[in-house]
Write a structure and sequence with these properties.
This protein is mainly alpha-helical. The chain is built from two helices and no strands. The mean pLDDT is about 90.
């Protein structure tokens, strides 16, 4: 005859309670919850990826615009100086 101690009985009772709760979960609902978790994870990764790409693209467009504006300003300055020199020579 085996004598069970209180710890063994309590552990067996916990295992029985866990088993009873696990059997109450329907497989379909559990699989759908796992699928939803995967889809939410994929959505978050896609959001981070696309928002990073959007920021990088917007930054590149802004850099090109600033460079273009600086180039136009430098060109206008050179043309104005050339016109002033030409007017000074002709006068």
């Amino acid at each position: 005859m085996t004598v069970l101690e209180y710890g063994d009985v309590a552990r067996a009772h916990r295992v029985d309670r866990i088993t009873a709760q696990a059997r109450q979960w329907p497989i379909g609902r559990t699989l759908l919850a796992l699928l939803a978790a995967v889809l939410v994870g994929v959505g978050r990764v896609a959001y981070v990826l696309l928002s990073t790409l959007w920021l990088a693209g917007a930054w590149c467009v802004a850099a090109v615009k600033v460079g273009w504006d600086d180039g136009q300003a430098a060109r206008r300055t050179r043309l104005d100086e050339a016109v002033r020199r030409a007017d000074g020579v002709d006068a």
